């Protein structure tokens, strides 16, 4: 029987959008064959991406900004990576991120209506850039994160300068410790979120419907076991699941011998005040966007008619 590694489970999860336990089950049922596991998930209705080939990542940039106890992250889309590397597009995205920080909005429509330096609105500036660069663009989304006391830290992966790249993360740290003492652990936790993509801070934040689904998968896999045994199996399975998807229980990427929660506890002692993660936001460029692939055969046929 093939060894089902964490990397293999993550690969299948990224391909299908199915739950971690579902992916593990699919791989186990198909002796580690990823393609067969994809089909297995699809037949059971567990794949969120039945037509993976029809899904493509929109191009553009994720931008993140922070100032003390406040942070914003936004996604600006373009059609091609060529435009994402365009200096004018980067300047536009940078300016819009600055405006988002200044006006304090967490709604793309309201941000688009905000004043843009030099006259007009953000929406006007985007329209002007479309006319100048010759490619469609859009301000897709923006989010804001604040803490009462402490800091909001950020990390941008694959940065092209001034905190713009393909993945952007904000992490809120509530603490009475000095801001400069929180900066290092804040950035490290934000990097962890970028790499590990947790679904919630802790088990209490996991969507009840997801929990029910995980329980059902465990129950189906162990059908026929006595009730008292099934209860222990489900309890143990959920503990494993929480370690995979809950930020505080995940193995810390900077020191896998400890959890993120343990790393924060140690950092809090060193900083002089307990540290609590109040929340996090993770944006990945193009996630959830579906784009119709061109039908070249139909296009050629149309040209010939």
Question: Can you describe what's shown?
Answer:
With 305 residues, this protein is an alpha+beta fold. It has 2 domains: 1-55, Ubiquitin-associated (UBA) domain (Helicase, Ruva Protein, domain 3, Orthogonal Bundle), CATH 1.10.8.10; 59-199 and 252-284, Elongation factor Ts, dimerisation domain (Tetrahydropterin Synthase, Chain A, 2-Layer Sandwich). The protein contains 12 helices and 9 strands. Strands 3-2-1-5 form a 4-stranded antiparallel β-sheet. The radius of gyration is 22 Å and the shape is globular. It starts with 5 loop residues before the first helix and ends with a helix.
Give the gist of this structure.
47% of the residues lie in helices and 21% in strands. It contains 12 helices and 9 strands.
Protein topology:
Layout: H1 6-16, H2 20-29, H3 34-43, E1 59-67, E2 70-78, H4 81-84, H5 87-103, H6 108-113, H7 122-133, E3 137-146, E4 150-157, E5 164-165, E6 167-175, H8 179-196, H9 208-221, H10 227-245, E7 251-252, E8 255-259, H11 260-271, E9 275-284, H12 296-304
Antiparallel strand pairs: 1-2, 1-5, 2-3, 4-6, 6-9, 7-8
Helix pairs in contact: 1-2, 1-3, 2-3, 5-7, 8-11, 9-10
Top CATH class of the largest domain: Alpha Beta
Overall tally of domains? 2
| Name of the CATH architecture of the largest domain | 2-Layer Sandwich
Low-confidence stretches: 48-57
**Name given to the CATH homologous superfamily of the largest domain:** Elongation factor Ts, dimerisation domain
Q: CATH fold name of the largest domain, please?
A: Tetrahydropterin Synthase, Chain A
Query: Using only CA atoms, what is the Rg?
Result: 22 Å
Largest sheet: 4 strands, antiparallel
Determine the fraction of residues in helical runs and give it as a percent range: 40-55%
What is the end-to-end distance? 55 Å
> How are the strands of the largest sheet arranged?
3-2-1-5
């Amino acid at each position: 029987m093939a060894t089902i590694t964490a990397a293999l489970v993550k690969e299948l999860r990224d391909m299908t959008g199915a739950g971690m336990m579902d992916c593990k089950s699919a791989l186990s049922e198909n002796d580690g064959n990823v393609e067969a596991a994809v089909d297995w998930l699809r037949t059971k209705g567990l794949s969120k991406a039945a037509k993976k080939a029809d899904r493509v990542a929109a191009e553009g940039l994720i931008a993140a900004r922070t100032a003390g106890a406040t942070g914003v992250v936004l996604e600006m889309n373009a059609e091609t990576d060529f435009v994402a590397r365009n200096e004018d597009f980067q300047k536009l995205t940078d300016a819009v991120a600055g405006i988002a920080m200044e006006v304090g909005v967490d709604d793309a429509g309201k941000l688009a209506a905000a004043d843009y330096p030099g006259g007009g609105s953000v929406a006007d500036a985007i329209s002007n850039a479309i006319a100048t660069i010759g490619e469609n663009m859009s301000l897709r989304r923006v989010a804001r994160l604040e803490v009462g006391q402490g800091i909001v830290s950020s990390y941008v992966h694959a940065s092209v300068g001034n905190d713009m790249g393909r993945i952007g993360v904000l992490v809120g740290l509530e603490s009475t410790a000095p801001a400069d003492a929180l900066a290092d652990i804040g950035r490290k936790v934000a990097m962890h979120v970028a790499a590990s993509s947790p679904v919630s801070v802790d088990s209490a934040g996991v969507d009840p419907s997801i929990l029910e689904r995980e329980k059902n998968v465990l129950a189906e896999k162990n059908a026929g076991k006595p009730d008292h045994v099934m209860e222990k199996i489900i309890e143990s399975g959920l503990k494993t699941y929480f370690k995979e998807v809950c930020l505080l229980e995940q193995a810390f990427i900077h020191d896998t011998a400890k959890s993120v929660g343990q790393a924060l506890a140690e950092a809090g002692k060193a900083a002089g005040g307990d540290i609590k993660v109040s929340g996090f936001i993770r944006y990945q460029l193009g996630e959830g966007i579906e784009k119709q692939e061109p039908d070249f055969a139909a296009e050629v046929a149309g040209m010939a008619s």
